[in-house]
Every structure is written in structure tokens, then in C-alpha cells.
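User: For a benchmark we're assembling, each entry needs the component sequences followed by a predicted structure for the full assembly. Here are entry 17's components. Please fill in the structure.
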Amino acid sequence: MINALSYSLFSIGIVFWLWGTLPLIGHRSVLYKLHSLSVADTLGSMSIVVGLLLRIPREWPLLILALISLAIWNTVLGYVLAYCSSHGGGDV
Amino acid sequence: MIGYLDICLRLIIWFLLTADFSVPNIIIGVCVALILPRTSTTAAVLKDWLHVFWEIIVAIPKAYAEALEMFVRPHKHEDVTLERVKANRTPGLIFLDIFLITFTPKTIVLRYRDDGWYEVHWVRRRRRK
Amino acid sequence: MNFVFFAMFLILLIPIYEAWQDEYIWQKMLAFASIATKTSIMILFISVLRDDWMIGVVGVIILSVGNAALMLLAHVIRRMNEL
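Assistant: Structure for entry 17:
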């Protein structure tokens, strides 16, 4: 049961990764790619980590820390990249 | 009143890192949390903080819902809007607001302006008039 | 589990390719940010795969000191462009 649940979380994460990373190759603006990367790298990775959490519940404190820092760092990096690339860094 | 939220935050991080509830560890954690330097900004109202934390919890399923929406229907158009910052926000709360907006995949804060506006970048399904 | 890991590895190739082929610096930065997150998640995943939690601790540490360097680099590049 738990195995099936964690596998489905993994596959959700992988699908998000794939879907969010593919637009990187195309010719869109940095900000557009940033939106899809926030789907892939924040939400996809979060669901993968939750899947891992179901597998090894005894390590929950570190995995929760990983989840929190993943969410915070990725969104803040998204903000910083958006800010830096659109102000002062030439046109997108 | 001075920054007890700060201390709570440090203690939470400490216990998540060490995962050890023995007495010496608790003592070390409390000491470190008290010793670390703190900024002397005005303390925010606890109610605002609780409100923001509640919004963060709500934002997680909302972010997944938006991701699914972008998944099903392509959002091709980009757009920049301005949003007003709520009154009486301390820097910590502004940080959390920016975090909240950027966390959901359809919106990214481009910039926080000193005169009290965020520039928010959107992806949309169709061009807005 | 091995299959999941293989899929992750293949997806990791996409930002690496992008970082190699795009000349524009912010696109490169995006690709590097993506690589950073993906590899640290993969480290966590390997630690579960091999049941070796010491690797996992490394992954968690990388995640939590995280992208600080990339943020600094972004600011440096912005300043350089302003000059």
C-alpha cells in the first residue's frame, strides 16, 4: 500500500520534472521558463521527497527540513533570477 | 515580545537538524538560539504571522492545482501587473508575501518597490485587454 | 526504483544540454539552477536506493545551504551588466 503510494508520488514528480524542464530548450523568455521550472523543480521535487518520506519515515526530521528548504530556496531563487534578469540585465 | 518568533524558528530548525530530545541537546539548542545575533526590527503582530502561515498551508494544494491547470491547457501569454502591499508589513512578512506569490507557478514577483507595490509576472491562457 | 532513477537521469540531461547550447547568460543560469536542484534530489533518492543514510544527510545539507551561491552569482552578473 505504502509502496504503491510512494511510487505514484515518484511518478507524479517525474512527470512534473519532465513537463517543466522540456520548455528550457525552446525559445521562450527567461520568465516564461521560470514559471515552468517552478512547477518542475519545486512541486515535482517536493512530491518526490514526500514519496521518499513515506518509504523511510524514521528519518522524518531531516526530510521535513529538506522539504522546507527546497520550497524556500527554489522560490527565492526564482524571485532573485526574475529580478536580476529583468532589471539591469538587458532585455529578455 | 522581542523576537520570540525568531527564537522559535531557530529552535524548530535545530530540532529538525538534530532530531534529539535529550536534556543536554535541548539546553544547547536554547542557548544557541538565544546567543545568535538578532536584528532589532519592530516585532510583527502574532496574528499576522499566523494568518500568513495558514496561507502557506493553503498555498501548497493551490500550487499543485495551478500546475495541473497549466498541464492541461497551455498558458502561452505573459503579462505584468501591479499589486498593492498590505499595510503595516514588517520585512519578514513582506518576505513571506513574496514567497507566497512566487510559490504558485502562475505568478512570480519581479520586484518589490519601495513605494509599496509588487510587480507580478503572470502566465495566462489568453491575452488580456 | 532503478527505473525511476534512470528517468531522473535522463531528465537531468535536458538542462545540461541547455546550459551547453545557449549563449545567453540568464538562460544558462536557469539551467544551472535546475541542475542544482535535480542533482540534490537525486542524491537523496540514491541514499534511499542504497539504504545508506549518510549519503542522504549530504543531500539534505546541499539542499539547505542550497542555491545561495547561485543567488550571489545572479547579483554579481546583474551588477556587471549595469557597469
